[in-house]
Predict the 3D structure of the following.
Amino acid sequence: MNSNFSHITVLLDEAVEGLAVRADGCYIDGTFGRGGHSRLILQTLGAEGRLLGFDKDPLAIATGNALAADDGRFVVVQRSFAELAEEAAVRGIDGKISGILLDLGVSSPQLDDAERGFSFLNDGPLDMRMDPDRGVSAAQFIATASEEEIARVFKEYGEERFAKRMARAVVQRRSEQAFERTADLAQVLTVANPAWEKGKNPATRAFQGLRIYINNELGDLERGLDAALESLEVGGRLVVISFHSLEDRIVKQFMRKHAKGEADKLPRDLPIIPKAFEPRLKLIGKPVFASEAELKANPRSRSAVMRIAEKVR
Ligand SMILES: C[S@@+](CC[C@H](N)C(=O)[O-])C[C@H]1O[C@@H](n2cnc3c(N)ncnc32)[C@H](O)[C@@H]1O
């Protein structure tokens, strides 16, 4: 693993503004990465403020620990943000968090370092785990899963139209020789994909599907959103940046559901709506996208969409 790759933070000012940082507040950065958002939050916090960072990735944690050594207001833990409620409870800050930021997906260092095995462009070991010490690698999954399961992962998480065909090609090839390298898998997927999209590597969708599956990204997001709602104080902000439609759909539906409440489940003529049916979130503004200037400086920001909500109950 190489620690020399850097990450350009997406929607940096917009996300920290969205958190409406209070000088004495207690904040969570659920996706520390290389700490771009965290550093700006710390600049905005006062001496009484606190920031707790999460990341699954050992190199992100190393960067976080270096920052924590310099700044006593900050700590970082190697844990999924899906478990942020448990971590907050241990620290006695559950229900007291003033703002939570999730900047989803993978960081540029993870994609750029071929040794992490995320890239179909740079050949590396077929791994794809954000935390390489936990769970099953992409190579292990591809070696053992059924053809149907591989097709489901390509289709459900990669939105790959030709998932079945591509899974069949993978299973056929693995019976002769196991997949160990990203370029080898990308090559087989490329040949099996009958309809190349303009400007897109034919293995892109299948690789995205694998990555999301291997890291349980959508499951973690669903758990993380529920945990965030429970852990925030009333008036606290939830800011989420998504990079593809599957993530954004989950975030949008979650925020809308809790901003609407459940009064429509009650008889229409009920004079008073019980508290348990009232909204728990208020939507703040419209979805935010990267500005022209940011798009020019960082093409990765093209697919970013940020949503903000505030806890009202
Ligand atoms: C887009 S990057 C965040 C970049 C960061 N905001 C910055 O400015 O440097 C996403 C990071 O979140 C981490 N990550 C993704 N899902 C996670 C999860 N469920 N729990 C903890 N960390 C996660 C990844 O390892 C990666 O480092």
Notes: DSSP finds 13 helices and seven strands in the chain. Residues 7, 9, 31, 33-37, 54-57, 60, 80-82, 103, 105-107, 130, 220 surround S-adenosylmethionine (CB under 6 Å). The longest strand covers residues 232-242.
